[in-house]
Amino acid sequence: MKLSQIKAILPTLSNVEFQLADGTFVPEHFHVTEVGQISKNFIDCGGVIRHEKTVNFQLWNADDYEHRLKPGKLLHIIQLSEEKLGIEDVEIEVEYQSSTIGKYDLDFNGKTFVLKNKTTACLAQDGCGIPLPTLKVTQSACCAPNAGGC
Q: pLDDT, tens digit, for every residue of 60-115?
């Protein structure tokens, strides 16, 4: 989800809720402790120089049980970040503490924001020298020519 998308969704909500991919919810008394832009410049395993930018939201579960972040307040924080930091309309990455700091992609299911699990991948599959998995085809009696089909 890009920053412009969350900005369009927030005014339609009465509450801001984040849900993990396993269905559990971030406690409703969470705080957004950071909104910023992260730039990542790196070389992949194939030697290609890459540049990525993300908008970063950091969620923190505090023991402040009376606190509830309202959509208008989060929208204000985002707008202030755009004005003061010049953050761009790029994909949002959310940091949330569990056993360690987890990084998540962000989605919206029509009611709540969903923290989607991120995965790693080889960005240079053609050039890094690691063979891609191949399918092993086995032939059984039912698949033999003239065997009547599978």
A: 987 777 778 999 999 999 999 999 999 999 999 999 987 788 999 999 999 999 99
User: What is the C-alpha to C-alpha distance for residues 15 and 69, in angstroms, rounded to an integer?
Assistant: 7
Q: Which of 94, 111, 90 is nearest to 12 (CA)?
A: 111
Q: Are 105 and 116 in contact (CB under 8 A)?
A: yes
Lookup result for tokens 């003061």: 84
Q: What are the distances in angstroms from CA 27 to CA 35, 62, 68, 69?
A: 19, 9, 10, 11
pTM above 0.85, yes or no: no
Cα distances (Å, whole numbers) of residue 94 to 40, 77, 97, 120: 15, 15, 10, 16
